Amino acid sequence: MVEENMRRKLIVGNWKMHGSTDQISQLLEEIESGSERLLEDIEICVCPTYLHLGLAFDLLASKSGAGRGQIKLGAQNVHVEPAGAFTGEVSAQMLAEYGVSYVIVGHSERRQFFAESDQFIAEKFRAAQACRLTPILCVGESLDQRQDNETERVVLNQLDAVIAAAGIAAMKEAVIAYEPVWAIGTGETATPAQAQQVHRTLREHLDRLDSVIAKAIRIIYGGSVNAANAKELFSQPDVDGGLVGGASLEAEEFISICKSTD
Ligand code: PGA
Question: What pLDDT does 110 receive?
Answer without folding.
Answer: 98
